[in-house]
Write a structure and sequence with these properties.
Rossmann fold; FMN_Rdtase-like_dom; oxidoreductase activity
Length: about 220
Amino acid sequence: MAPEEDAMPEQKQDVPTPVRAVALVCTLEPSPAESSTQLLTDQVLEALRGHGVECRSVRVVDHDVKPGVEKDMGPGDAWPDIRRRILAANILVLATPTWMGQHSSVCQRVLERLDAELSETDDEGRLLTYGKVAVGVVVGNEDGAHHITGILFQALNDVGFTVPAQGVTYWHDDVKGEYRDYKDLPSAPAGVLETNRTVARHAAHLARLLRHQPYPAG
């Protein structure tokens, strides 16, 4: 009887790290209240999952994010944990409702806390946000989407994020329409869903490019 052949050693295969996205939902409505901002964000995350992106969502108002421009504002500050989620992700989805033609106060606080990233660099002097993609979600029953988008894009780019082409999706009610809230629509408008898919496709593509070809050090 022939001796058994030695078993071949198990080959370890390199499993690529998945692209990850975290959404910061800046609705003023705490959980578990329904939110148009949450709904539109969830639709964008679903589109991202279609490109193999792992997605998580944080409703910021549910957490005690202290005012300030430091990465940690002391005892009880929930921002350090949220910040860890941002730094662990490749894509940031920043979502805000529209109030009085402006982004929400919660969204403004997020932008202010992100200002701390200007002081955080890697060993080669690059901001830790370099190589991360950011996209926007804006929703409301009044005008202001382009104004808010301009603020989001400028602020996010200032602190090191890269915004892809057509990097925002939004819905604003036509005052003549029957529905004043996105969550009350009988179905999502085809144009919004198509924009969601474009945002997701471009964000996933750019995130993968930047992960494999990071920005050069200065």
